[in-house]
Specification:
Blueprint: H1 10-30, H2 52-72, E1 76-80, E2 84-87, H3 88-93, E3 98-107, E4 113-117, H4 119-129, H5 145-165, E5 173-182, E6 194-204, E7 210-217, H6 218-221, H7 225-229, H8 240-252, E8 258-260, H9 269-273, E9 289-293, E10 296-306, E11 309-317
Antiparallel strand pairs: 1-6, 2-6, 3-4, 3-5, 4-7, 6-7, 8-9, 9-10, 10-11
Length: 321
């Protein structure tokens, strides 16, 4: 015997089945729209959002010339290529099995930074530094102790340049972490995370061109995208009005050398060589004497006397001063 109050009527069962059918149809329509999502990995940053890296790369290229020329014993040309973004595993797959990867920490940037140098270039710099042609080719699978020392000085110089060009955005504190020669052991971020690759083509005067690369984790640059995209970085000092007042006050206290030329006589070399004590050089005073400040004529005047001292009375001030 059944309890009629606990059973569902035919009309109720029909309504429930209709709703279930609609849900199933709706699920079929929306199933293709569901996509996996990982927070922080939505997309790579566009070139515009990291445009400041290009300006910084131009300054860094000039710094690298100063770092490399003492090793190359001559002029070195350094050209910065346009940076690009790719997955870390894709970038690592393109590396040769033997290379130089130096890992540094740059606080407060998150993660680390890799400096990548081609082994043949390190050998060539050692050869040039000790008087060779700079055309030596890398042999073997390990760096010599001399190459290790030069490589350390080279990568430290690169990091000094990075810290310098970042000075307008954030003060960085560098720390050397490790150096690897096997690309498979290169660890900076997870394999699927994006990195920003900044490459420099280095061409010594008597050697072959080589590539020096700097690898940033994209996640480390995201907090600074606004500043990297700005053409002019904000000054974190005092407000404009206060700064202008202080600068104007400071400028009024700057001392400049002021001079006046009374005459410009001319003598031959023979007369100069024959000069002796007691000789008299005749001069003709001009009617107006120039007042010169920092090699520019500021005014004209006449020579006179005031309170027992020679003096210059200003009669005309140059226009545009």
């Amino acid at each position: 015997m059944t309890d009629d109050s606990s059973t569902l009527g035919d009309d109720v069962l029909g309504a429930l089945m209709a709703e279930l059918t609609e849900v199933e149809k709706g699920g079929d329509d929306t199933a293709g729209k569901v996509m996996p999502f990982t927070f922080g990995q939505d997309s790579f940053a566009s070139a515009d959002r990291l445009s400041g890296l290009e300006r910084m790369a131009e300054r860094l290229a000039r710094h690298l010339r100063g770092v490399l020329e003492p090793f190359a014993r001559g002029k070195v040309q350094v050209t910065a290529e346009r940076h690009h973004t790719e997955r870390f595993d894709s970038w690592r797959a393109g590396l040769p099995s033997f290379t130089s990867l130096s890992l540094y920490r740059l606080r407060p940037l998150k993660g680390g930074l890799l400096v990548v140098v081609e082994p043949d270039f390190v050998t060539a710099m050692v050869d040039a530094f000790y008087g060779g042609s700079g055309l030596a080719a890398k042999r073997g699978r390990e760096f010599t102790p001399t190459e290790e020392r030069l490589l350390g000085r080279l990568t430290d110089g690169v990091i000094e340049g990075v810290v310098s060009v970042w000075g307008d955005i954030a003060p960085l504190s560098p720390t050397f972490v490790s150096r690897e020669t096997n690309a498979a052991y290169a660890s900076l971020v997870r394999a699927d995370e994006p990195v920003v690759v900044q490459r420099f083509v280095v061409t010594p005067g008597t050697g072959r061109s080589a590539i020096v690369s700097i690898i940033y984790p994209l996640a480390a640059l995201r907090p600074y995208e606004g500043q990297l995209a700005a053409k002019v970085h904000a000054d974190h000092g005092p407000a404009d009005g206060e700064w202008r007042a202080r600068m104007a006050q400071a400028l009024t206290q700057v001392q400049l050398p002021v001079r006046s030329v009374l005459a410009r006589p001319e003598l031959t070399v023979a007369q100069l060589m024959a000069l002796k004590v007691g000789d008299v050089i005749p001069i003709t005073l001009a009617p107006r004497i120039p007042l010169i400040v920092a090699n520019r004529r500021l005014a004209y005047g006449t020579i006179g006397e005031q309170e027992g001292r020679a003096a210059l009375m200003i009669e005309q001030v140059e226009q545009g001063q």
